[in-house]
Amino acid sequence: MNFSYGFRPGRKAHDAVHQAQSYLNDGYIWIVDIDMEKFFDRVNHDRLKQKTDGWVSYFYIADAIKMLGRLDSWLRFRVRMCIWKQWKRVRTRFRELRRLGMSVKDCLRAANTRKGYCRTAHNPFLQSALSNKCLREMGYSELLAVYFLRNSV
Description:
By secondary structure, the chain is mainly α. The chain has helices spanning 13-25, 45-62, 65-86, 90-99, 104-111, 117-122, 124-129, 132-138, 143-152. α4 (90-99) packs antiparallel against α5. The termini are far apart.
């Protein structure tokens, strides 16, 4: 039995979502397997917006609000991690954190951290500097907001 729907002739993403919805109805908890390794390292942000809007359309069919919430949270974490990674140098990190409104003392402490990208992205200083509001202003739409917008129509 072939359960793959990606890039298969005669199959489309909506078929995969309908199949996933039937698995949810059967009591399964884990359904979606997305291989996103290295996707965010050099992502085209317009493409990311298209992809996330596309995911919302597919999850809209399955009515999976919880899954979208978790995916939304994970995507924001990955975006913060990639932004931090792009600010490679201490000088750049300091400048960008100051631009986002952090105090000089906090900027110095944060910019000189030796923690890895993943751990830093979970750190409260980066979550407050790159808040959800800040990410929205940068153009990252929250999946749940798009979902509820489509659901209300």
